[in-house]
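User: Some background: our group keeps a shared notebook of sequences we're curious about, and every so often someone picks one and asks for a predicted structure to add to the entry. Today it's my turn. The entry only has the sequence so far, pasted here. Could you supply the structure so I can complete it?
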Amino acid sequence: MSREPGVKPAPDDPHADVAAALHDVSNALTIILGWVSEARVEPVDPVAVRQALQIIEDQARIARSLARSAIGADPARSTSKSRWMRSSALPSPR
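Assistant: Of course. Here's the predicted structure to add to the notebook entry:
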C-alpha cells in the first residue's frame, strides 16, 4: 500500500477501508495521548483524572473496535463514523 503521502486512495481501492480505519485509530490514539498528559498535570485533581481516565478508556475501546473491524475480527460489529464523532466531541485537554 505505497502511495504518496497525503494522497487519498480511490474509492474502489481495496485498501481504502483499511486506510480510513487506521486514520480513525490514529485519531483515537492522539486523543488518548492528550488525556494521558492531562492526567499528569500538577496539581492533581482527582475528578479531572477520573474524567481523563474515562476518556482514555472510551477512546482505546473505539480504537480497538476500529482495528478489529478493519482486520475482519468483529464482522458483526459496526463502527460508524457518527459514533466516533459523538465520543470525540468531549472537552479537549488544556
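Suggested note for the entry: The two ends are 36 Å apart (CA to CA). Helices lie at 16-39, 46-70, 81-88.
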